[in-house]
Structure to design on (142 residues):
C-alpha cells in the first residue's frame, strides 16, 4: 500500500498571495492554481469570488501542500495543528522563521532547545500556524 500525507490549508480569500509568499520564501514551486471562476464550480462561487483560488498545489522540497479560498460562510480560522518545517540548516531556519513571522504572531521565538539547534512557533500573516524545527545531530550510541 502506498500512502502519502499531504496538508491542505484553507484561506479566507488570500490563498494565492499566501502560496506566492511561500513559493518565494520556502523555495517552493507553484505547481497548480485554479480559480473559482475557471473551475467547474464557477456557478457555485460567491459573488466577487471568481478570482479566488478553488485549488492550488505548492511543491516544497519532496513535499506538497494544497490550499484553497473557502467561501466566507464556510471559512474557519485554522487551529489545532501546525505545519512543521523540518530543516537541517540553522541559518536557513532563521531566514524562513523571520520571513514567516513578518506581520504574523510569534508564539515561541526561534531558539535552541534540548532537542533542536533552532525551534520556533508562529502564526503567519495569513493565519497559518508553523513550527520551524532544526534538530541537533543525534550522537551515536557508544
Amino acid at each position: 500500500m502506498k500512502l502519502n500525507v499531504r496538508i491542505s490549508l484553507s484561506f479566507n480569500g488570500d490563498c494565492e498571495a499566501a502560496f506566492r509568499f511561500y513559493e518565494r520564501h520556502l523555495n517552493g514551486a507553484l505547481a497548480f492554481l485554479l480559480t473559482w471562476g475557471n473551475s467547474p464550480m464557477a456557478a457555485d462561487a460567491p459573488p466577487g469570488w471568481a478570482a479566488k483560488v478553488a485549488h492550488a498545489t505548492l511543491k516544497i522540497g519532496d513535499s506538497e501542500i494544497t490550499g484553497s479560498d473557502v467561501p466566507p460562510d464556510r471559512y474557519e480560522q485554522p487551529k489545532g495543528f501546525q505545519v512543521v518545517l523540518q530543516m537541517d540548516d540553522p541559518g536557513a531556519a532563521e531566514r524562513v522563521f523571520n520571513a514567516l513571522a513578518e506581520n504574523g504572531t510569534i508564539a515561541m521565538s526561534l531558539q535552541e532547545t534540548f532537542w533542536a539547534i533552532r525551534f520556533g512557533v508562529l502564526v503567519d500573516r495569513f493565519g497559518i500556524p508553523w513550527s520551524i524545527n532544526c534538530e541537533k545531530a543525534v550522537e551515536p550510541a557508544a
User: Anything to note?
Assistant: Residues 38 and 50 are 7 Å apart (CA to CA). The domain at 7-69 is CATH 3.30.720.100 (Signal recognition particle alu RNA binding heterodimer, srp9/1). The chain has a mean pLDDT of 94. The helical segments are 15-25, 90-101.
